[in-house]
């Protein structure tokens, strides 16, 4: 296998797309710093293009994604690094409308995965939310009160609307 081959043909389309991407690649001058000092915590939902939503480009912000845009231990770990080493002085926590994690509770998600796919996921916590605004406020406060985040980092919350592209700030 050469350096430019995946062992699985299911990824051939990605290699072809990457070859095209390389022809116009323009980001070699970027550093690992967040040029605009922003980190965005958002959902893994593919309808969200976090940089475009806030009018930024590659290199401007750090993007942290997971199911439901929840502030997990891994998010906190990453924000500690970003706040000290990568120029982050603002954090936007941005869940979205029409999110699967806000439409079901934990037992329902586990049951769906068991019934439809035969996989027992009860050892996982998916962090579903019945009150998306309430969960957002808790997550914002979790970052604000985390003792290892660099002092002076500003944290805010907003909900992204996947139907029209707007963000609505939430008073946290």
CATH architecture of the domain at 33-95 and 132-170: 3-Layer(aba) Sandwich
Provide mean pLDDT, rounded. Answer: 95
Give the name of the CATH superfamily of the domain at 33-95 and 132-170.
Carbonic anhydrase
- In terms of quaternary structure, the protein is single chain
**For the CA atoms, what is the radius of gyration?**
18 Å
Element string (H = helix, E = strand): HEHEHEHHEE
Main sheet properties: 5 strands, mixed
In total, the number of strands is 5
Q: State the CATH class of the domain at 33-95 and 132-170.
A: Alpha Beta
Major sheet: arrangement of strands? 2-1-3-4-5
What CATH calls the topology of the domain at 33-95 and 132-170 is Beta-carbonic Anhydrase, Chain A
Q: How many helices?
A: 5
Shape: globular
Q: Can you characterise this structure?
A:
With 172 residues, the protein is of the alpha/beta class. The chain has a domain at 33-95 and 132-170: Carbonic anhydrase (Beta-carbonic Anhydrase, Chain A). The protein has five helices and five strands. It has helices at 12-23, 50-53, 73-85, 106-117, 132-145, and strands at residues 38-43, 61-66, 90-94, 154-160, 167-170. Helix 2 (50-53) links the parallel strand 1 and strand 2. It starts with 11 loop residues before the first helix and ends with a strand.
Question: What distinguishing features does this structure have?
Answer:
172 residues; single chain; alpha/beta; 5 strands; Beta-carbonic Anhydrase, Chain A
Q: What does this entry show, briefly?
A:
The protein has helices spanning 12-23, 50-53, 73-85, 106-117, 132-145, and strands at 38-43, 61-66, 90-94, 154-160, 167-170.
């Amino acid at each position: 296998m050469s350096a430019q081959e995946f062992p699985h043909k299911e990824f051939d389309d990605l290699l072809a797309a990457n070859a095209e991407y390389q022809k116009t690649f323009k980001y070699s001058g970027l550093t690992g710093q967040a040029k605009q000092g922003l980190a965005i915590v958002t959902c893994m939902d593919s309808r969200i293009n976090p940089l475009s939503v806030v009018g930024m480009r590659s290199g401007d912000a750090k993007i942290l994604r997971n199911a439901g845009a929840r502030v997990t231990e891994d998010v906190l770990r990453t924000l500690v690094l970003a706040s000290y080493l990568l120029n982050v002085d603002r954090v936007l926590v941005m869940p979205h409308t029409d999110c699967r994690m806000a439409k079901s509770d934990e037992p329902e998600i586990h049951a769906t995965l068991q019934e439809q796919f035969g996989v027992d996921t009860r050892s996982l916590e998916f962090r579903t939310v019945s009150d998306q605004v309430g969960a957002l406020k808790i997550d914002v406060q979790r970052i604000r009160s985390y003792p290892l985040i660099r002092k002076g980092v500003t944290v805010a919350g907003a909900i992204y609307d996947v139907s029209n592209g707007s963000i609505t700030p939430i008073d946290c």
